[in-house]
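ok new one. same drill as before - structure tokens go in, u give me an amino acid for every spot. 206 of them this time. try not to just spam alanines like last time pls lmao
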């Protein structure tokens, strides 16, 4: 009886290991994950929502998700939208799955942007061109291409960098650089930058 009992335990253990292995190696579908975990906040069909993620730089997307997972972003209570995103940390995938989701998002077609900023579009050209020197390319670095970000979100994030609500974590090196760059700029200058970038988006046909 003892031998049979041991045999049953061994068989049960092997079955459990095989099942766990299958679960761990189960195919990950980024489209399904986005629909189930992300779409409620990140589809532009929603009235109250976060930024559009489709068509953004995969390296940038992966880096930002990692920052939220590590608590580098989303810990400042004044930045309510980032704090809300941080509360969704358990739904963010790990490792290769996070990379797969980032690449899938980058390959999706962007929706039509809403161009709701009003004003002279050429007033911020010199300032915006300085921004595009680092943020003009789409791939090859973990920085977003500014023409792929919605105008309302651009202005919102520039304001948060200036106010110290984003980029304040000691390990957010890119965020600290942005804080330094944006800090001297006035509210009017921030709006001029986004207005000019919005005019380029219109010409580009986003």
């Amino acid at each position: 009886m003892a031998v049979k009992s041991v045999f049953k335990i061994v068989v049960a253990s092997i079955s459990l290991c095989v099942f766990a292995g299958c679960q761990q190696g189960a195919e990950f579908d980024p489209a399904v994950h986005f629909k189930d975990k992300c779409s409620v906040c990140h589809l532009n069909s929603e009235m109250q929502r976060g930024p559009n993620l489709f068509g953004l730089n995969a390296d940038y997307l992966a880096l930002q998700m990692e920052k939220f997972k590590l608590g580098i972003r989303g810990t400042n209570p004044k930045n309510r939208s980032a704090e809300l995103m941080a509360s969704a940390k358990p739904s963010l995938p790990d490792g290769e799955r996070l990379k797969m989701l980032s690449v899938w998002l980058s390959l999706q077609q962007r929706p039509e942007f809403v161009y709701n900023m009003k004003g002279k579009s050429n007033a911020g050209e010199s300032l915006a061109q300085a921004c595009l020197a680092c943020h003009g390319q789409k791939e090859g670095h973990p920085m977003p291409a500014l023409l792929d970000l919605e105008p309302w979100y651009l202005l919102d994030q520039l304001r948060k960098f200036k106010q110290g609500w984003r980029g304040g974590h000691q390990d957010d090196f890119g965020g600290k650089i942005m804080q330094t760059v944006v800090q001297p700029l006035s509210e009017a200058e921030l709006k001029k930058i986004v207005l000019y970038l919005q005019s380029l988006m219109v010409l580009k046909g986003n």
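The CA atoms of residues 37 and 148 lie 22 Å apart. and btw The chain has a mean pLDDT of 86.
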